[in-house]
Amino acid sequence: MTIKPLQDRVVIKMTEAEETTASGIILAGSAKEKPQVAEVVAIGPGKADVEMNVKAGDKVLVSKYSGTDVKVDGQEYTILKMEDILAVVE
C-alpha cells in the first residue's frame, strides 16, 4: 500500500533518534528527543497559495511536534502540512 497525500500535505519518514550524547552517555528510551530531521517520502499536489518546495528523497527539518503519525505495512510515517517543514538539510 502507498500513501498519496492530498493538497499541501507531505509524507515523511523520521530518522532514528540519537542513542548517545556527544560526550558518549547512552540515553534511555524515555530520555531521547523526538528527531527533527526526516526524509520526504511523498508530496501532495499543493494548493493555489502554497508552493511545494520539496521533493521525494529530500532531507528536511520539521517542527518538533507537528503532523500526524501513521503506520502503514509496518512502517511509521508522519503526514504534515508543507508549512511545518522548516528547512531542507543538505
Find the count of extended strands (DSSP E, 2+ residues): 6
Estimate the strand proportion.
Answer: 35-45%
Mean model confidence by pLDDT: 84
Biggest sheet architecture: 6 strands, antiparallel
Low-confidence regions: none
Adjacency order of strands in the biggest sheet: 4-5-1-2-3-6
Helix content: under 10%
Shape by Cα distribution? globular
Radius of gyration: 14 Å
Query: In sequence order, what are the helices and strands, one letter per element?
Result: EEEEEE
Number of helices: 0
Distance between the termini: 29 Å
What structural class results from the helix and strand content? mainly beta
Please, could you describe this protein's structure?
The protein is an all-beta fold and 90 residues long. Helices cover 0% and strands 38% of the residues. A 6-stranded antiparallel β-sheet has the order 4-5-1-2-3-6, with no helix packed on it. Strand 4 and strand 5 form a beta hairpin. The radius of gyration is 14 Å and the shape is globular. The N and C termini lie far apart (29 Å). The model has no long low-confidence stretch (mean pLDDT 84).
Write the layout of secondary structure elements.
Elements: E1 9-14, E2 37-43, E3 59-62, E4 68-72, E5 75-81, E6 85-89
Antiparallel strand pairs: 1-2, 1-5, 2-3, 3-6, 4-5
Key features?
single chain, 90 residues, mainly beta, six-stranded antiparallel β-sheet, 6 strands, 0% helix
Give a short synopsis of this structure:
The chain has 90 residues and is mainly beta. It is built from no helices and six strands.
